Amino acid sequence: MKIAILGGDGFVGWPTTLHLSAQGHEVHVVDNLSRRWIDTELGVQSLTPMDSIQERCRIWRETSGRTIHFHLLDLAEEYERLKAWLAQERPDAIVHLAEQRAAPYSMKTDRHKVYTVRNNTNGTHNLLAAMVETGIDAHLVHLGTMGVYGYSSVGAPIPEGYLDVSIETPTGPKEQEILYPTRPGSVYHMTKSLDQILFQFYAQNDGLRITDLHQGIVWGTHTTETRLHEQLVNRFDYDGDYGTVLNRFLIQAAIGYPLTVHGTGGQTRAFIHIQDSVRCIELALGDAPKAGDRVRIFNQMTETHRVRDLAEMVAKLTEAHVAYLPNPRKEAAENELVVKNEQFLELGLEPTTLAEGLLEEVVEVARRFAHRIDRSRVPAVSAWTRELGAKVDRDPEGKALRSAS
After folding, report:
1. Per-residue pLDDT averaged across 50-55, rounded?
2. pLDDT in tens, 148-174
3. Which has fewest Cβ within 10 Å: 4, 128, 200, 284?
4. Which residues contact 337 (CB under 8 A, 6 or more apart)?
């Protein structure tokens, strides 16, 4: 297949690009490199040294003998170029990862909220409109988030996208299937909820073939392909905006930083290893819906864990100290989370779980590149409201100067 990977320079995009190329597909990366610009804005860098996308593609060609094509294009701002590119290349499948992915970044300021909505929602709609206008019959696979469901405790397993309900009518109850009600917890999660509505419309109105992957929190460093050459290494975020919780715990442990648990740590979240993430995308591509089918929705996760339990697990493994801090997020202090994920298991996914060896692998990577870590960027300080912002602990290590008076 000819596959376009939108956002192929990102945390999930790059290992997905390598994996699909290794499977023999003709892969085209379409990216505006905005994630690299955000690094510059935040004054932080990937823990792992990242070459340019052009150099990454060159190293892959030398290592594997396969070519990855790179196209610099802004999905949200360059609609006519996007439409022309699709009309020319006519990919068989499109993997849409080109969205600002961090909830804390989306809540930093009003400017970041506006940017996240403009980039994510415009980008998705531009893509859908261009697919219809060009008449291409590409299978669209979108990387969404488990966060569209919210994290309130409902006492029942979260289904894969759709919910069977009974509605009272004048003639009696009527059974109906609806999208599972969204309850986004940030502007980022809100944009993913809006994506869902856009997909439903274009699938029913224009017959677009769409798969939406509601992914859990990704952890881990390497995939089979990124291990082939040190310059193929994936990006690895440790800062308070982009670092995912388990990876951050492992990095904090590696550099002797307190494991920062916010609130009670009673938040239960869904997780998936980066290797499983790329494997799920491959499986979804191989099981495309037909024109006229409803949007196919998968819960892309393999296990759930409570945050404080993860912290204690890492502390036991590394002898790190756990610090409980005020929570900058507006969320439930405790929640249960039971998730259905039978569809990927039926397609052949063999889940990677939190094995000690893989956890140690992340710690070793962190220790190797510890000299690249700016400790001042480790705390999570982006707050959901002004009131919560006033309570944020910006100095978990207690190293700031204190008043003597």
Report:
1. 97
2. 998 866 778 899 999 999 999 999 999
3. 200
4. 151, 153, 158, 268, 269, 270, 304
- Structural domain boundaries of the chain? 2-237+271-303+333-353
pLDDT over 70 percentage in the chain = 98
Under 8 Å between Cβ of 221 and 254: no
Write the single-letter amino acid at 311.
A
What pLDDT score was predicted for residue 156? 83
At 151 the pLDDT is 82
Residue 63's CB is within 10 A of a number of other CB atoms, namely 14
DSSP classification of residue 23: T
Choosing among 3.40.50.720, 3.30.450.20, 3.40.50.620, 3.20.20.70, the CATH entry for 2-237+271-303+333-353 is 3.40.50.720
CA distances from 319 to 259, 307, 326, 362 (A): 11, 17, 23, 15
Closest alpha carbon to 336 in 158, 198, 155, 200? 155
Strands 217-219 and 139-145: unpaired
pLDDT at position 355 is: 84
Name the β-bridge partners of 167.
174
Task: List, in sequence order, every residue forming a beta bridge with 217; answer none if it has no partner.
Answer: 271
> For position 398, what pLDDT does the model report?
86
What's this model's pTM, rounded to 2 decimal places? Answer: 0.95
Confidence of residue 114 (pLDDT cuts 50, 70, 90): very high
Taking the C-alpha atoms of residue 256 and residue 243, their distance in angstroms, rounded to an integer, is 17
Residue 82 CA to its chain's centroid (Å): 23
Active site amino acids: 145, 188, 192
Query: Is the pLDDT confidence value at 131 over 80?
Result: yes
Transcribe 57-103 into DSSP letters: HHHHHHHHS--EEEEE--TTT-HHHHHHHHHHH--SEEEE--S---H
Transcribe 89-146 into DSSP letters.
H--SEEEE--S---HHHHTSSHHHHHHHHIIIIIHHHHHHHHHHHHT--PEEEEEEEG
Q: To 10 degrees, what angle do helices 123-134 and 187-206 make?
A: 10
Helix, strand, or coil here: 360? Answer: helix
What does DSSP say about strands 259-262 and 209-215: parallel, antiparallel, or unpaired? unpaired
Please tell me the total number of residues recorded for the chain in this structure.
Answer: 405
